[in-house]
């Protein structure tokens, strides 16, 4: 198709342009900086954008590919930029009709990514010619690339490219493993463009090298009306496709299984993903080396450098890279809130699941709920802010499986061999007397410490201790009302480590109870801790948070850098804790715990019932 013909086709759907509604471009998310509702039409006959190749993903299971975008304009400017739109027709004809008396804006959907026109073409301002290499992932629709001038706040559409599409936009993609409600159950969740009226989703799986079987999958989706506010309900909305989950049951402990995602079309043809594999969990209490990675607030990054207006999640790609490189030494991952920082721009969830696919397709990827997934006024969240961008938990609860009793109440427990994890939901009330408090106590109280001696408490906001500047200025060194109710439970049930995200840094405390260190040791703990070690591990990717200059007696190690935590249980008596930086994967803080079962049984302050002389 010639450039002139493309312009003739595109122009009619862009003719209506008057009294545009004013929208705010403020916010932390890079896409929120673009005032897309303020866009005007400035199509220039001599300007063009061309993208190649036009057909992507010709190999089965290929869900990402690089596209070369070349462009030219006779009137270049330093603030010109390229926006990637999907679906390719992003004009006013696709805008929902909300008020018949007001003309719709020229554009009503945000780009899924963007980059300055001079990013890789420093002579663009002089020559008017440039090119970009952008990595595209399969997002169930076609793409177009648009050249804008006027910067982000006053964008003017100059030229639009040809359409680019994957050979099968509906193909199954981005499998996410998670543990089920039983130790011998693994769930597989993935995304596709096939609804239940078009195809039957299933997983073909079995012992590696053995005879495979088929397990059916359930299918979920949601509508724009499921979103609680803007931008998720407006410029950030994008059709999420269909999210499928299959339950693989009665696994043999430690066995390696191969699996493929499948869709059986009603014409009896099959659509397949590539083959993946995972290792089944150990039997609860099994004495073997078990390795757990824990972090919060990772977010997503773009390997092509796009959408990095505010460099908001600079450590994300490094953390992902380190985990992929060490994957053979990782058994399960916990991402404790602030998952991808989509903040209402739904396309970002696809990009995040694509980024973590090498990890989540191989080991269970368990999540917790954070403020950027859940919080929205008037929706039942404990905090009335707008951090979720109108998602109000729907995306996180649908895109990822967790063994909760109720997806809206995102707290749950899970075990892995010698570990037991109690995962709280800090976006719902956790204080004494609440439903969640009862769950937390039951989770901690019901652990058989003879089989699962390593008891770990996980949550997003810091319910324990933190020297982060934001908490210090409140004078609490914690989420307000955080530990007041819970510390007696941690002490009573002898929680080894309580780990949190939310603050974008790393910090480790001494074993502590009621603001008092219960041990002078710093790196080699033996016997009963007499308290709980608290760790802030929210530095996996998002922009870093500063510490207060105030010195606290309980803080043993702080790091203003991106990183993650790894726990290794060698047996029932020996645990290794390591903090690794994302930039190089090296260990910068560590400690060990060595003890016997009798040490767990022994009484400490607040952990045993009162006695009398008669007893």
From TrEMBL:
<feature type="domain" description="Purple acid phosphatase C-terminal">
    <location>
        <begin position="531"/>
        <end position="590"/>
    </location>
</feature>
<dbReference type="InterPro" id="IPR041792">
    <property type="entry name" value="MPP_PAP"/>
</dbReference>
<dbReference type="Pfam" id="PF00149">
    <property type="entry name" value="Metallophos"/>
</dbReference>
<dbReference type="InterPro" id="IPR004843">
    <property type="entry name" value="Calcineurin-like_PHP"/>
</dbReference>
<feature type="domain" description="Calcineurin-like phosphoesterase">
    <location>
        <begin position="291"/>
        <end position="506"/>
    </location>
</feature>
<feature type="domain" description="Purple acid phosphatase N-terminal">
    <location>
        <begin position="175"/>
        <end position="279"/>
    </location>
</feature>
<dbReference type="Pfam" id="PF16656">
    <property type="entry name" value="Pur_ac_phosph_N"/>
</dbReference>
<dbReference type="Pfam" id="PF14008">
    <property type="entry name" value="Metallophos_C"/>
</dbReference>
<keyword id="KW-0732">Signal</keyword>
<dbReference type="Pfam" id="PF17808">
    <property type="entry name" value="fn3_PAP"/>
</dbReference>
<dbReference type="InterPro" id="IPR040974">
    <property type="entry name" value="Fn3_PAP"/>
</dbReference>
<dbReference type="InterPro" id="IPR015914">
    <property type="entry name" value="PAPs_N"/>
</dbReference>
<feature type="signal peptide">
    <location>
        <begin position="1"/>
        <end position="25"/>
    </location>
</feature>
<dbReference type="InterPro" id="IPR025733">
    <property type="entry name" value="PAPs_C"/>
</dbReference>
<dbReference type="GO" id="GO:0003993">
    <property type="term" value="F:acid phosphatase activity"/>
</dbReference>
<feature type="domain" description="Purple acid phosphatase Fn3-like">
    <location>
        <begin position="49"/>
        <end position="168"/>
    </location>
</feature>
<protein>
    <recommendedName>
        <fullName>Purple acid phosphatase</fullName>
    </recommendedName>
</protein>
<dbReference type="GO" id="GO:0046872">
    <property type="term" value="F:metal ion binding"/>
</dbReference>
């Amino acid at each position: 198709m010639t450039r002139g013909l493309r312009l003739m086709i595109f122009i009619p759907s862009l003719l209506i342009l008057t009294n545009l509604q004013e929208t705010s471009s403020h916010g932390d998310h890079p896409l929120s900086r673009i005032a897309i509702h303020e866009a005007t039409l400035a199509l220039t006959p001599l300007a063009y954008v061309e993208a190649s190749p036009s057909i992507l993903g010709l190999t089965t299971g290929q869900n990402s590919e690089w596209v070369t975008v070349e462009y030219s304009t006779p009137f270049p400017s330093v603030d010109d930029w390229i926006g990637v739109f999907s679906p390719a027709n992003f004009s006013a004809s696709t805008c929902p009709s909300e008020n018949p008396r007001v003309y719709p804006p020229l554009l009503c959907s945000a780009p899924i990514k963007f980059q300055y026109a001079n990013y890789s073409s420093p002579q663009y301002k002089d020559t008017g010619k440039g090119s970009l290499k952008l990595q595209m992932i399969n997002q169930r629709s076609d793409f177009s690339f648009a050249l804008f001038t006027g910067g982000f706040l006053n964008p003017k559409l100059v030229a639009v490219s040809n359409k680019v599409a994957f050979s099968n936009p509906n193909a199954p993609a981005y499998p996410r493993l998670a543990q089920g409600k039983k130790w011998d159950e693994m769930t597989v969740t993935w995304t596709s463009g096939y609804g239940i009226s078009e195809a039957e989703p299933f997983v073909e799986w079995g012992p590696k090298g053995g005879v495979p079987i088929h397990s059916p999958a359930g299918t979920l989706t949601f509508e724009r009306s499921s979103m609680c506010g803007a931008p998720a309900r407006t410029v950030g909305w994008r059709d999420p496709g269909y999210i499928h989950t299959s339950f693989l049951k009665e696994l043999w402990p430690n066995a390696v299984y191969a699996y493929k995602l499948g869709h059986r079309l009603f014409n009896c043809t099959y659509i397949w993903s590539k083959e993946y594999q995972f290792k089944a969990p150990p039997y609860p209490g099994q004495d073997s080396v078990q390795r757990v990675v824990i972090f919060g607030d990772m977010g997503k990054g773009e390997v092509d450098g796009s959408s990095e207006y505010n460099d908001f999640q600079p450590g994300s790609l490094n953390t992902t890279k380190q985990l992929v490189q060490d994957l053979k030494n990782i058994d399960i991952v916990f991402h404790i809130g602030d998952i991808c920082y989509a903040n209402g721009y739904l396309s970002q969830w696809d990009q995040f699941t694509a980024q973590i696919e090498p990890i989540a397709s191989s080991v269970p990827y368990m999540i917790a709920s954070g403020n950027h997934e859940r919080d929205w006024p008037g929706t039942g969240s404990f905090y009335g802010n707008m951090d979720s961008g109108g998602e109000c938990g729907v995306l996180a609860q649908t895109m990822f499986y967790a063994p909760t009793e109720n997806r809206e109440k995102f707290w749950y427990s899970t075990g892995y061999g010698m570990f037991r994890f109690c995962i709280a939901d800090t976006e719902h009330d956790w204080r004494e007397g609440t439903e969640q408090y009862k769950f937390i106590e039951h989770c901690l109280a019901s652990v058989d410490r003879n089989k699962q001696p390593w008891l770990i408490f996980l949550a997003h906001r810091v319910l324990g201790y933190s020297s982060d500047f934001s908490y210090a200025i409140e004078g609490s060194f914690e989420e307000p009302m955080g530990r007041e109710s819970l510390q007696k439970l941690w002490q009573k049930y002898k929680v080894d480590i309580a780990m949190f995200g939310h603050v974008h840094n790393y910090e480790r405390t001494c074993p502590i109870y009621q603001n008092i260190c219960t041990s002078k040791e710093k790196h080699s703990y033996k016997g009963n801790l007499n308290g709980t070690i608290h760790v802030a591990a929210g530095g996996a990717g998002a922009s870093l948070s500063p510490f207060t200059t105030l010195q606290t007696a309980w803080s043993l190690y702080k790091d203003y850098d991106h990183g993650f935590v790894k726990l290794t249980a060698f047996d029932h008596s020996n645990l290794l804790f390591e903090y690794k930086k994302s930039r190089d994967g090296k260990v910068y803080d560590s400690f060990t715990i060595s003890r016997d079962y009798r040490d767990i049984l022994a009484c400490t302050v607040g952990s045993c019932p009162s006695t009398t002389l008669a007893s």
